[in-house]
């Protein structure tokens, strides 16, 4: 079974969020299963991994986007050093950029990527068994292979759509239809429509053979809250599945992680975490004897990042300064400004703006607790990374966090809170501070969390089972 994953992100080539981690790990674990060959197709980016790697040109051609002729180049990585075949699609001016997102012509960019992939596969007579489309950026592929004559060579190829984040749907005005590949005149264009716009995510759900959310908890929430697509997912529920993400336990392994100051396993986790914590606290001017609570992520409303300033102030005040808080991330300007001001006023609050992969590993290893006050969390990987490193997750009980983190009062090894408010998060943090001083309890939670198995092994099998269906 040949499976092609289509995505705008893939770690370590280009990463904005959890999508990159999933696409960078899932095909590797699928390739360990018998009878599966999984590859990744993504845009070419102006990134170190691309420049430092060895790639061979496997296809050159052109497509038309409206009146514009676009030259496309397909490059394949030599040696498959990530554990899967990696193909990069390059289009001068559109798919040769520094980052996946943030451009005024994103709709043209994503549309060109999908059309270029299908043009290459069709022209080169490559017919996969499954096209696995990740998020709305590739959501038009199932429609195109069934309704665009240029790609009828691929007609009937099974398509799977994975919803990593339903908050983003890629709506376009109908004028964009002029830039689509030619659509068969018999096609009902209402397939593309949702609420008066072309909606790639809605189109993916309508046209793919099956779709999944990245946790059972998130799938259940989509039936009730899907930014206007609730009735669609209810209508298509017979082909809806929930499959929890995993983590790459070869990359995320405290015993071998090269980013850590001190490697450790379950046998010496308490001592190992303490050594890492001392180093990190010394670097950021924090007291290592106090509990360290970390936050890692984008400063976006769905992550509850706008709550962080109030959470920090109230937590420090209500515990009389008996904790440290460290935040790594970037995003909304207002949140960045408020956090920057707080970092000046509070000596037990450390802030590092931006995203640094090495620092995220250090925080997971050093922190006693990881805070996730998410309003929306389709799956969440941070809590799994934290638990893998013996850090206790403090999470809002929503989406994939429901599936992976249970409160200690119900036999779990984390802390839950119900409302996406600063007050609810602060209450959970105060519980964490109280727990920190019970050394036997903390030793038990560190060990319990490290022993959870969030490997991709089982999730990879679940996806292959879905393909076979």
Q: Give me the secondary-structure category.
A: alpha/beta
C-alpha Rg (nearest Å): 23 Å
The number of distinct helices, counting runs of at least 4 residues, comes to 16
What coarse outline follows from CA principal-axis ratios?
A: globular
Proportion of residues in extended strands: 15-25%
- Average pLDDT, to the nearest integer? 97
In terms of per-residue confidence, which ranges show pLDDT below 50 for 5 or more consecutive residues?
Answer: none
What share of the residues lie within helices? Answer: 25-40%
> How many angstroms does the end-to-end distance come to?
13 Å
Main pleated sheet? 10 strands, mixed
Number of beta strands: 18
Please, could you describe this protein's structure?
α1 (18-30) packs across α16 and α8 packs across α11 (357-366). The mean pLDDT is 97. This protein has 469 residues and is α/β, with parallel strands linked by helices. Strands 1, 2, 3, 4, 5, 6, 7, 8, 11 and 12 form a ten-stranded mixed sheet that branches. It is globular. It has 16 helices and 18 strands. α13 (399-404) links the parallel β17 (392-396) and β18.
Helix/strand layout:
Blueprint: E1 2-6, H1 18-30, E2 37-45, H2 48-52, E3 55-65, E4 68-77, E5 85-90, E6 96-97, H3 106-123, E7 130-134, H4 141-147, E8 158-163, E9 193-194, E10 197-198, H5 200-207, E11 210-213, H6 216-222, H7 230-235, E12 240-242, H8 269-284, E13 292-299, H9 308-318, E14 324-331, H10 333-345, E15 349-353, H11 357-366, E16 369-372, H12 382-388, E17 392-396, H13 399-404, E18 415-417, H14 422-436, H15 439-450, H16 456-468
Parallel strand pairs: 1-2, 1-7, 2-5, 2-6, 7-8, 8-11, 11-12, 13-14, 13-16, 14-15, 16-17, 17-18
Antiparallel strand pairs: 3-4, 4-5, 9-10
Helix pairs in contact: 1-16, 8-11, 9-10, 9-14
């Amino acid at each position: 079974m040949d499976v092609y994953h289509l995505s705008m992100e893939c770690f370590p080539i280009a990463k904005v969020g959890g999508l990159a981690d999933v696409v960078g790990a899932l095909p590797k674990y699928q390739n360990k299963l018998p009878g599966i060959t999984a590859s990744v197709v993504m845009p070419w980016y102006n990134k170190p991994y691309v420049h430092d790697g060895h790639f061979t040109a496997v296809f050159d051609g052109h497509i038309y986007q409206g009146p514009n002729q676009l030259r496309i180049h397909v490059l394949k990585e030599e040696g498959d050093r990530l554990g899967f075949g990696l193909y990069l699609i390059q289009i001068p001016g559109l798919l040769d950029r520094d980052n996946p997102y943030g451009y005024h012509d994103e709709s043209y960019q994503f549309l060109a990527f999908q059309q270029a992939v299908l043009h290459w596969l069709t022209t080169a007579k490559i017919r996969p068994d499954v096209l696995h489309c990740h998020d709305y950026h590739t959501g038009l592929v199932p429609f195109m292979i069934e309704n665009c004559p240029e790609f009828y060579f691929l007609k009937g190829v099974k398509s799977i759509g994975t919803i990593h984040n339903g908050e983003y749907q890629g709506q376009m005005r109908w004028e964009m239809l002029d830039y689509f590949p030619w659509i068969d005149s018999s096609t009902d264009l209402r397939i593309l429509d949702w609420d008066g716009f072309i909606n790639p995510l809605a189109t993916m759900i309508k046209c793919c053979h099956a779709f999944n959310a990245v946790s059972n908890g998130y799938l259940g929430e989509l039936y009730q809250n899907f930014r206007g697509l609730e009735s669609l997912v209810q209508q298509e529920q017979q082909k809806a599945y929930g499959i929890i993400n995993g983590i790459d336990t070869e990359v995320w392994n405290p015993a071998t992680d090269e980013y850590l100051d001190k490697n450790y396993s379950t046998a010496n986790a308490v001592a190992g975490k303490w050594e890492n914590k001392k180093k990190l606290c010394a670097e950021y001017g924090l007291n290592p004897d106090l509990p360290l609570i970390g936050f890692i992520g984008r400063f976006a409303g769905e992550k509850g990042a706008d709550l962080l300033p109030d959470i920090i102030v109230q937590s420090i005040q209500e515990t009389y300064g008996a904790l440290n808080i460290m935040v790594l991330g970037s995003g909304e300007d207002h949140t960045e400004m408020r956090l920057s001001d707080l970092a000046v006023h509070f000596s037990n609050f450390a802030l590092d703006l931006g995203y640094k992969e090495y620092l995220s590993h250090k925080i997971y290893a050093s922190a006693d607790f990881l805070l996730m006050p998410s309003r929306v969390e389709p799956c969440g990987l941070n809590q799994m990374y934290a638990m893998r490193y013996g850090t206790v997750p403090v999470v809002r009980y929503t989406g994939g966090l429901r599936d992976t983190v249970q409160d200690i009062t119900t036999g779990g090894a984390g802390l839950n809170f119900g409302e996406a408010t600063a007050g609810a998060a602060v209450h959970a943090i105060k519980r964490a501070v109280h727990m920190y001083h019970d050394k036997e309890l903390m030793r038990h939670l560190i060990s319990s969390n490290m022993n959870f198995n969030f490997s991709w092994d089982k999730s990879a099998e679940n996806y292959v089972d879905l393909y076979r269906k």
